[in-house]
């Protein structure tokens, strides 16, 4: 806490790289009507950035309150739960019924359900004091598998026509983003990000661990629940826009820690968000312009994230 | 003054503390002693609101632990538990600086930084301040953690076995510093100690717990007798007077 969190050179560098990538993404290889190109690519870019920021911040938040660098909301089954809720909604209302719901209403409904589920499941797990890492990992894996299997089961029960509605949302796709939701998702993320920023100093203390945080006058239980609400909002945004991505959050949070080497969330959070933007926009740029859509960004990102996960697990005793 | 009234605690049907009532005066060093499983750590945890109080009442001066907001209590008391692992990798200076958080809530001023430097100096960490917590010895890390609670500038410091895993030199240095914290800075130190002789040498007051109950309390010269210690720990202990202080011989 010595020295004020001034705008770091590393953050500036990350910001510069991201700006260049965004400019390249918007303009590179563009032909024809600029108005159309910019509007089309702009929407896509906005979605990529939104997803990047949401996943990055959600991951850093979750890692801070759970006191480890290996678990992420996705590994703990947050987005599997979101997909399960989407599937259940289609199951309950039918494909036509679900499709007839306005996208915004459907999103709000799914977000509300995810919030309830997340608080119920993870609130007890994290609030109770001892955060036993093994118990957390096992619970997360079991819950993730359970949610995925239940979603799969429901998908088998529903009408093939309804299934098409579900299928589109259960695989990660950075190329085809749901444009209708962009405004709403941006609004919700902005709220969540403002909330996160106002908590940044408290997050530094929470990262020390429960007992230290209480001794330093932070209401641990309430803070953890608050953070879970923020995580649920951000995961809803990213999952609704592109679908579940398992290891992406882990990758960007690990990179942010590597670049910043600080405990201060005032630096860590922006760094993670910028890194996420760089990975997604840069990756999509390479996939679209260089590889001619021959590869899928989600596969590449997941592969790199998976490697980062293995590295973190094998590097040293789990902390 | 710390006022503890009828505090009981049980975990999973097993009684850890039953009806503990005592009052600890303000100022000085109080040593909490007793065999393993006597409930010392639990009592300290309850005093510091790390666990919710099941029955009874604990007050620090006029603040009721169960009713006072956590942020307000953090200006009154600080706790350091045994096995409180750090979730983050920090320099010792950054770690000690966290002690100021209850005062500035994230925006440290110049006097916060000055107090961090004072705490580092008092605990002999000036030269190590830039080192990371995983780059120093266990004794130095422990000292930094105690320095953090000191920097919190609370009237009361609760320390659970701070001498754990410390060698002679570190343990003595820490106990002397705690003595100084009480004498020169007017803080009240409550410390759980395993080694009775450190309590005899440095504490003003002994509180002994056994089986979740108060066994005895008083100044070390009066209460640290062979019969009492033998009964407390359930093993025969000889006590000799060395230079006016009781010294327990329990090694052979």
Could you please describe the fold and organization of this structure?
The complex is a heterodimer of chains A (319) and B (252). With 319 residues, chain A is mostly helical. Chain A has a domain at 51-168 and 177-245: ABC transporter involved in vitamin B12 uptake, BtuC (Orthogonal Bundle), CATH 1.10.3470.10. Chain A has 13 helices and no strands. In chain A, helix 1 packs antiparallel against helix 2 (34-66), helix 2 runs antiparallel to helix 10 and helix 3 (78-100) crosses helix 6. The longest helix of chain A is centred in the N-terminal third of the chain and has 33 residues, at 34-66. By secondary structure, chain B is an alpha/beta fold. Chain B has a domain at 84-153. Chain B is built from 10 helices and 12 strands. Chain B has helices at residues 40-47, 70-73, 92-97, 101-104, 110-122, 138-151, 168-183, 196-202, 220-223, 226-233; strands at residues 2-11, 14-24, 28-33, 55-60, 63-64, 77-80, 156-160, 188-192, 205-210, 213-218, 238-242, 245-249. A 6-stranded mixed beta sheet of chain B has the order 6-7-8-3-9-10, sandwiched between helices. In chain B, a hairpin with a 2-residue loop joins strand 4 (55-60) and strand 5 (63-64). In chain B, helix 5 packs across helix 6 and helix 6 packs parallel to helix 7 (168-183). Chain B is globular, with a radius of gyration of 18 Å. At the A-B interface, helix 8 and helix 9 of A face helix 2, strand 6 and helix 3 of B.
């Amino acid at each position: 806490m010595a020295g004020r969190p001034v705008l770091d050179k590393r953050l500036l560098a990350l910001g510069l790289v991201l700006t260049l990538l965004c400019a390249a993404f918007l303009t590179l290889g563009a032909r024809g009507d600029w108005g159309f190109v910019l509007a089309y690519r702009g929407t896509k870019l906005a979605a990529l950035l939104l997803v990047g920021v949401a996943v990055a911040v959600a991951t850093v938040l979750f890692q801070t309150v759970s006191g480890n660098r290996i678990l992420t909301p996705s590994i703990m089954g947050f987005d599997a739960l979101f997909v399960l809720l989407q599937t259940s909604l289609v199951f309950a209302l039918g494909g036509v019924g679900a499709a007839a719901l306005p996208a915004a209403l459907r999103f709000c409904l799914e977000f509300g359900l995810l919030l309830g589920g997340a608080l119920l499941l993870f609130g007890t797990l994290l609030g109770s004091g001892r955060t036993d890492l093994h118990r957390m990992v096992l619970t997360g894996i079991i819950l993730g598998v359970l949610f995925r299997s239940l979603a799969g089961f429901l998908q088998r029960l529903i009408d093939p026509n309804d299934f098409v509605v579900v299928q589109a949302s259960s695989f990660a796709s950075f190329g085809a983003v749901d444009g209708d939701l962009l405004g709403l998702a941006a609004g919700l993320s902005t709220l969540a990000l403002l909330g996160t920023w106002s908590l940044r100093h408290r997050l530094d203390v929470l990262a020390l661990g429960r007992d230290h945080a209480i001794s330093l006058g932070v209401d641990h239980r309430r803070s953890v629940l608050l953070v879970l609400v923020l995580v649920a909002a951000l995961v809803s945004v990213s999952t609704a826009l592109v679908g579940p991505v398992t290891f992406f959050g882990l990758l960007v949070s690990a990179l942010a820690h590597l670049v910043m080497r600080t405990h201060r969330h005032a630096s860590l959070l922006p760094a993670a968000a910028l890194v996420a933007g760089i990975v997604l926009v840069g990756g999509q740029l390479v996939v679209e312009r260089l590889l001619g859509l021959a590869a899928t960004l989600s596969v590449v990102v997941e592969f790199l994230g998976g490697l980062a996960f293995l590295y973190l697990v094998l590097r040293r005793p789990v902390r | 003054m710390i006022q503890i009234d009828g505090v009981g605690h049980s975990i999973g049907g097993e009684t850890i503390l039953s009806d503990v009532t005592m009052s600890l005066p303000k100022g000085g060093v109080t040593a909490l002693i007793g065999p393993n499983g006597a409930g010392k750590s639990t009592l300290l945890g309850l005093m510091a609101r790390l666990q919710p109080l099941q029955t009874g009442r604990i007050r620090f001066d006029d603040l009721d632990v169960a009713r006072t907001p956590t942020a307000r209590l953090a200006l009154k008391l600080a706790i350091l538990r045994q096995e409180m692992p750090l979730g983050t990798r920090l320099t010792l200076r950054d770690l000690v600086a966290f002690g100021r958080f209850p005062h500035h809530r994230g925006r440290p001023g110049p006097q916060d930084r000055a107090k961090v430097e004072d705490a580092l100096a008092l605990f002999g960490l000036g030269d190590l301040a830039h080192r990371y917590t995983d780059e120093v010895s266990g004794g130095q890390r422990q000292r930094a953690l105690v320095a953090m609670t000191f920097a919190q500038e609370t009237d009361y410091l609760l320390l659970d076995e701070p001498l754990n895993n410390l060698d002679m030199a570190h343990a003595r240095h820490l106990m002397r510093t705690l003595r100084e914290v009480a004498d020169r800075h007017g803080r009240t130190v409550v410390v759980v100690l395993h080694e009775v002789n450190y309590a005899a040498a440095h504490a003003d007051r002994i509180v002994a717990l056994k089986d979740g109950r108060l066994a005895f309390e008083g100044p070390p010269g009066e209460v640290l007798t062979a019969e009492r210690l033998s009964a407390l720990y359930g093993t025969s202990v000889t006590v000799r007077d060395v230079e006016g202080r009781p010294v327990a011989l329990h090694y052979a």
